[in-house]
Design a protein that fits this description.
The structure is a homodimer. By secondary structure, the first copy, chain A, is an alpha/beta fold. Chain A contains 15 helices and 12 strands. Chain A is elongated, with a radius of gyration of 26 Å. The N and C termini of chain A lie far apart (about 80 Å). The first copy, chain A, binds a DNA duplex through helix 3 and helix 5.
DNA sequence: ATGATGCAGGCATACGATTTCACCCACCAA
DNA sequence: TTGGTGGGTGAAATCGTATGCCTGCATCAT
């Protein structure tokens, strides 16, 4: 068919279509963009152009589109911590939801303090470029964004560690939606979960099983985000008048962190009979540690997690946890982001706040106190 | 500082720099791109331009760059299954590695049979556009790519289910690197692991512990990818002369799949004393099922996984598995992709093949046969 | 003194699509 | 016949960057 031509120009341009359909390139643009043109197009011309485009296998060049200020249909996702299974699930939901809206997702990962390093290694490719461009560190931080390359940005998790990124975002024109913002200032439209209600649901469940010696393992973010911990403290004070001293353990937000935290708790003279964890990841670490030190779950110890990540239903034993409505939250956020991407700039920065309610999911890691 | 100006033009262009530094736009481009120009630039001019750029907070517009055929520094990742924790880890590695090379990652997910649906819902945004563009289904499938928007494509997992995607890739000029291609035809440079060696390592370990009744749980991909299963069959025949009948269970590549498979195995009159799973995900399902039906691991049953995903070290009990060298594989692939992105088109499609060796990681889910 | 060299930098154009403006033509009313 | 009028189309500017080509201006050798 288009043999040798496709070898040279695999993707035909509008000019090619125009030549083949014997119209001008402007007409091709008008027909293919499908936008309600100000100018009328004869039905037959329209058909001819469409047919030609199909035959030649036309694909619009999004870069050229974007250059004119049109949308690139790209959503940038900046995620605090990649290795966290919770965010892995979030990203999946985000990608699926975005594609359903006709958008793709560009992943950005905010390097800890690695601005320098990233710049250096990028230099491999860019030659002197990296060194030459002004304000290189700042550029490295906002790498994903490269403003205007992207129609909207979704912030996943606490971004407090990256003020530079937030500042860049603030000064740019891209709409931003923040999810699970933690301690980040509420400067963008935000979607979050009612952490306090979630923690209370888990704790109420433990109390209803007769537990009193309930410890809390808090996955500590770099900036003290203590909503879940505070919810625990308040709950304990309400129900028992006081928080058992030493019953709050803080640890890294990892499996190993939860593991270590439980070991510390069980080493106490008065070990708890139940543990609430601030995330499933640490809860799974707790499960593992309990098994390692010979504590039976749920016989000797009840464990409640938070998030209901994918593996939670298949741990040993299956984890009782609080389901984070990820798809609802992400779905809402994407809808919001897409809407903002189309709206005039001035309407975008209203820091709205939408809260979703988590719900308890009882499985096998909790049992009545012995 | 730049008060009202930033309100109108948040991101200055090269033209702005040029005006401010009293040089031509071309000079600005030459200085900022840092490429070894054919044209000499006076050091002082260079400095002046750089300073001006810094002061005005210049950021290159990647779209405009890309339009000229330059690189967009974007790598497209197409992943077979998002919900798989294995691929979550892979994506993390990919993002980190890509950013180290100065690239960002665009996530694509190949919809099962959902071409229609995706197109419809995308229509929300594009109005008649979606319907108007030729070959809409094809466009939906290659959504991420939008050829030339991306410098290279990394294929994650088996793409056999998506011949349309492969065809598009074949006809486009983007370099492609395939990772863990499974049954996909070897038409691109490929990076894979030595599955056979990995399975044999796991099985040898079980045999050295005295196990003979070793079953295999195969996470079945849509296209029968049976390298791991075949490795098991061969191994068993070599060591025991035959494969115990009914000892190969196939299941969905999910936690629930592994769960169900183990239940079937343990229901047999001659249950195995050890199980090798083709992936950690199903192995974790196996662990969970064993616990549910009262089979102790590793007392009654030894379990070996494959992949060494993040949670594997923290399951109950910690999973003995075969470590998939993800970072090595991804690192090699990204280096390759970046190199190909810079090379002339004709050198790109040589279907090279690089194989990495997995290694056994012994933890607590295996023990001598009782 | 003068053409040859080399250094610095500007001009113009290309990239592919969008969009504004202008144009042509047919048809209708006056 | 002529001045609309409006439908249908094309030419050209534009977006921001990269680059081939050309032009000044010194300096240098002859």
């Amino acid at each position: 068919m288009s043999g040798d031509q496709s070898a040279k120009r695999p993707v035909p341009t509008m000019r090619d279509i125009a030549a083949a359909a014997a119209v001008s390139q402007s007409t091709v643009s008008r027909v293919l963009s499908g936008a309600p043109t100000t100018v009328p197009i004869a039905p037959e011309t329209r058909q001819r152009v469409l047919r030609t485009a199909r035959e030649l296998g036309y694909r619009p060049n999004p870069l050229a589109r974007g250059l004119r200020g049109a949308s690139t249909n790209l959503i940038g996702a900046v995620v605090r911590d990649f290795s966290d299974p919770f965010f892995a699930g979030v990203i999946e939901a985000l990608v699926v939801e975005s594609m359903a809206h006709g958008y793709n997702v560009v992943l950005g990962h905010v390097p800890g303090r690695a601005g320098e390093e990233a710049g250096d290694r990028a230099g491999e490719k860019a030659g002197e470029k990296a060194a030459a461009v002004a304000g290189e560190e700042a550029v490295a931080l906002t790498a994903v964004l490269e403003t205007r390359h992207i129609d909207a940005v979704v912030l996943l998790g606490d971004m407090q560690e990256h003020p530079q990124l937030l500042a860049d975002l603030r000064n740019s024109i891209v709409p931003v939606v923040a999810l699970w913002p933690g301690t980040s200032p509420r400067e963008f439209p935000t979607v979050d979960a009612d952490d306090r209600a979630g923690i209370r649901a888990g704790l109420s469940h433990l109390v209803s099983l007769g537990h009193k010696r309930i410890a809390f393992v808090n996955a500590e973010l770099p900036n003290d985000y203590r909503v879940r911990e505070d919810a625990y403290l308040d709950f304990m004070r309400e129900h028992f008048g006081a928080v058992p001293p030493g019953y709050v353990e803080r640890c890294a937000s990892t499996l190993a962190g939860g593991d270590a935290a439980l070991r510390r708790l069980m080493d106490r003279p008065d070990p708890p009979t139940a543990v609430a964890a601030s995330t499933d990841v640490v809860a799974i670490g707790v499960l593992h540690a309990a098994h390692s030190v010979g504590v039976t779950v749920p016989g000797d110890l009840s464990v409640v997690g938070f998030d209901d990540i994918l593996i939670a239903a298949h741990t040993v034993p299956a984890l009782t946890t609080v389901r984070m409505p990820i798809s609802e939250i992400v779905g809402y956020a994407v809808t919001q982001a897409v809407r903002l991407a189309r709206e005039p700039v001035d309407a975008q920065r209203v820091p709205t706040l939408e809260i979703f309610k988590p719900a308890l999911t009882v499985r096998d890691s909790t049992a009545p106190r012995r």
